[in-house]
Amino acid sequence: MELEEKKVIDKTSSPKQQSDKEWKIFIVDDEKSIHDITKLVLSDLIYEDKKLTFLHAYNIEEAKKVFNENPDISVVILDVVMEEEDSGLKFVKYIRDDAKNDLVRIVLRTGQPGLAPESKIITEYDVNDYKEKTELTSGKLHTLIITSLRSYCELLDSKKEQDVIKEQAQITISEKDEYIKLIADALPVLISFIDKDETIKFFNKTHQSWFDIPDDKINGMKIEELIGNDAYEIFRENWFKAVSGHTINFDMQLSHSSLGVRNTNVTLVPHTFFNEFRGCFSLISDITERKQMEENLNFLAKHDVLTGLHNRAYFDTYIDNAIHKAQKENKMIGILFLDIDGFKRINDTLGHEYGDILLLSTSTRLKECLRKSDTIARFGGDEFMLMLESITNIEEISVIAEKIINAMSKPFLINKQEFVITASIGISVYPKDGVDKDILLKNADLAMYHIKERGKNGYQYYTDDFFDSATDKYGIENDLRLSLIKEDFELYYQPIIDLKSGKIDAVEALIRWNHPKRGLLLPSSFIPITEETGIIIPISEWIIRTACNQIHELQKNGFPDLKVSINVSASQFIKPNFIKFVTEILNQSGIQGKHVQFELTENILITNFDLTYTNIQKLKEMDISVVLDDFGSGFSSLNYLSRLPIEGIKIDESFSKFVTTDLRSAAIISTITQLMHKLGIKTVVEAIENTEQLYFVSSCNCDMIQGNLVGEPVPISKLKSLLENYQHPDIKSIKNPNAELSSKS
Length: 745
What we know:
By secondary structure, the protein is an alpha/beta fold. The protein folds into four domains: 23-161, Response regulator (Rossmann fold); 187-292, Beta-Lactamase, CATH 3.30.450; 302-470, Alpha-Beta Plaits (2-Layer Sandwich); 493-730, EAL domain (TIM Barrel), CATH 3.20.20.450. Helix content is 46%, strand content 24%. The strands form five sheets. An eight-stranded mixed β-barrel has the order 20-21-23-24-25-26-27-28, surrounded by five helices. Strands 1-3-4-2-5-6-7 form a seven-stranded mixed sheet, with helices on both faces. Helix 2 (60-69) packs parallel to helix 3 (87-98), helix 5 runs antiparallel to helix 6 (173-186) and helix 13 (343-350) runs antiparallel to helix 14 (352-369).
């Protein structure tokens, strides 16, 4: 959002009876940053010599409380998606239906690109505007608030006039006609009585301002003469319906004296006297702004907000028509699934502004490569779908695909910097690769991922081999889901050794899959698929539950201080109910928090640092310790590390493997250990496979080690025996003053 360092003052008309010193602006959003920047942008805005004051709420229940305590709120700036996808809409319903407040102006906005509620819903919920958060620059936000305040003032005036109407209902009969005329003149709608000959017999002053015609000219004028021939055709058609005794409502366009053509809504109420039709009362309202909003919402429903291209919803509908047409004409269709190579890296490292500019530039280049008959849509993120119709030869598709690859390989200029970007395109062809849209899209997707695996920057037609590969992947996914139900998984436990005592400090729980056909599988063969499909969440829950139950049973059988270390996926750790789940597991299993340790990969820090910090702090309050696993292999930020309340780190095996042959690896382990000790953080070195590694990490004063040299993973059935008899000669020699440590390190 842009910031403009200037005071904005608007002195257009406002209600004379408004005496408050400030306008109340109510911001409802679950993101604090939105509150802060909105307040910052609007802090200097002055309307009718009155400043803005801001009220804040971060959820719907809080919003209701604040709203009830402040009945004089002028404008509500409301987020659509908060606790639920329709939280904002529910609060609109509360304001209009439960609180019975029709005055306050409501501005809906959302931070999720492409998310556009159906126009029917927005219209029914009576909101005044709908914007993407990225649309609301400083200037636009100023304009929006001024427009909303002006509308609020007009409605406030109108309400006061309606209150006057209620008061006038008590006046004497002799004054009634005069006051009715005054009231009609005060209302912003065009009110008239048109007799059975279509002659205007009564009208309010809005007619004069609308048509710029003197009163004596309007009185007695035919309705056709007043509204013009084009509008009269629509009016006449509905007039005949009203003559039959029915109240009729319809839309038509009228020319305003100064505003030009306006969209209006007309209501004709028939008047009869002793069952004889005498004419109709006509009420005409200006609905131009509402129509514009509906058109905007209809556009958003079919288009991508950022690029203006068609969205997936439109593409899914249009492709059906294209297939039907191709079938009749005996033509082919090319479906091109394009993905920008390395887009996530640009978005994550340089920011969304760079990513958005790249997406806009990409959409421009793609349109330049296509024919008029072709269709392009943005499916979300950096994925674009292209449909080439009326294809008679597959070579036509290749020519366009080659053209796109060449166009995408030219440098992109983003904020005065040049970036070399490439794209990968997967292609499926109707009817060769499928006659159904879902199959065609899926096959184009498979082809795109195939070219990604082959090195990117190119295009690839679909072949049946891709399906076989995907089917195998799907088969593993299906087997995983079945194994979850049948509990075909098993935990092995590998000891973590304290170098000072030579004893087992903890055991790490490691999952194994007893596949019904492939036998015992290690995590590397199936965990990546669980992460792609989301199965990692229930599997992680099974690991935590099973490990806590099994270790607690061992504690009751002679090992009361045994501690278990459990790997937790990033997707599970940042789930809203994770802490609640862990609490339930501790209560159900009976294990104490001090005997549980969670291992997190350091890349979780860039997923959601604030939530990660909060959850680690909550776990610490439960006496559960947290260590960072695979330290040094990913996002190693000392800034973040120093702020986290963690117990220790596990140095990645990529360093420990080469400590005896690579001076850099040795220096890294030594330096990390010294630094961690200064921070009060313990170090564990993984993958210790030989005595040379053992002696070296010991000389660096590492706290603990883990690896096949000092203890291989064992099933729960053998863990008790391991705990009872554990003793390692090499660790014992390190503790012995006469050991040959100096010569081997």
